[in-house]
Amino acid sequence: MTKNWMSFAVVAALALGVGCGDDDGDGTTCDLAEDGVCPPGCPTDPDCVGMDMGGGGNPFEPPGLPPASLGEGGVGGPTADTTSPADLDCLGTATAPTGGEETTFSLQIREFNSGMAFEGLDVCFFPDNEVSLSGCTGQMATTDGSGNVSVMAPEGGWYAYRVFANDLGGGSSSNIQDSIQVNEVVPSGDSAEGNSVSEGTLGLIPAVLGLSRADNTALVAGTVQDCAGEPLYGAVVRMYDGTTLLEETEETVTPKYRYFNGESFPSASNQWTHVDGLYAAANIPAAEGGSTITVEVWGEVDGEFQVIGCEEVPALPDAISIVNVGPLRADGPTCPGQS
Question: Tell me, what CATH number does 185's domain have?
Answer without folding.
Answer: 2.60.40.10
